[in-house]
Design goal:
This protein has 92 residues and is an all-alpha fold. It contains three helices and no strands.
Length: 92
């Protein structure tokens, strides 16, 4: 179980972002849920990019847990940024 903890942490970033988008959605039909899932996956890819950028700048890490946590932070940053963009777009 300890070998796969980094994978579970990365998966939790995806589940959390998809859950956030579904929670923020006003209409919960299948089309909106699929868009929430697609947005969550795209934010996960953004988290991978941010984690890769930080790893490229600082060097490699001994533990697999640190990049997994960086993916979580990057995914959360992308999710918050996208949510702020959606809210500003709705106001205009």
């Amino acid at each position: 179980m300890t070998d796969s903890i980094a994978s579970w942490i990365t998966l939790s970033a995806l589940i959390a972002s998809v859950g956030w988008y579904i929670h923020q959605s006003s209409d919960r039909n299948i089309n909106n849920i699929m868009m929430c899932i697609a947005s969550g996956i795209l934010c996960l890819f953004g988290g991978f990019l941010i984690s890769g950028l930080i790893m490229k700048i600082t060097g490699s890490f001994d533990s697999a847990l640190i990049p997994a946590l960086l993916v979580c932070v990057g995914t959360a940053a992308c999710t918050v940024g996208h949510t702020v963009y959606i809210k500003k777009k709705a106001l205009n």
